[in-house]
Sequence to fold (209 residues):
Amino acid sequence: MSVLPIVTYNDPVLREKTKPVEENNQELQTLIDDMFDTMYNSQGVGLAAPQIGKKIQLFVMDADGITDELEEEDSHGPLVIINPKIVETAGEKVKMEEGCLSIPDVRDDVVRPEKVTIEYLDRDFNTKRIEAEGWESRVIQHEYDHLQGVLFLDYLSAFKKRLHKSLLKKIDKGTLQIEYPVVPKKWAGEMKTLRIVFMGSPDFAIPSL
Ligand code: ZN
Fold:
């Protein structure tokens, strides 16, 4: 069980396509546990695999904390969502304020459908289908977007985006003070170089990016 560093804004991995998870093995189970640790450690309610540098269709979430606070109806609790498909969205379009562990301190209103139905595999690879609304639906839609390389910033107007410009620049430069471990921008760049230099060397272990 360990807390993994989170990838932040402008890291290319947040924009890349993800692949379906094909095999359920110990490595996957450990990754899921680590992702929960990472999410709870940063007081997040959802965390998608690209946010810890993995290009696979997996996210973890737990909307209970937030729904308790807002006295919304109970959510489904901690969920492991593998290879999800959105089956249906329904209800009114609602505006809610979102934030993202990869874009610390930036929050803004995003309009999304109120309800969502998804089909996915749980951590035992059983096919599940759930209907969610309120905050739980919001978290699902936000995390699902991460698997498509989409960030909540993409929904904001150019004007709204400009308001966040200086903060985004700080995150990109790695100069913003962040309360949880993140992948340092410079270091990430160096690791990519190292990866090329040492490619093929069995003795060289590449840390998680
Ligand atoms: Zn996010």
Q: What stands out?
A: Residues 100-102, 142, 146 surround zinc ion (CB under 6 Å). The longest helix spans residues 26-41. The first strand starts at residue 46 and ends at 48. Residues 191-209 have pLDDT under 50 and may be disordered.
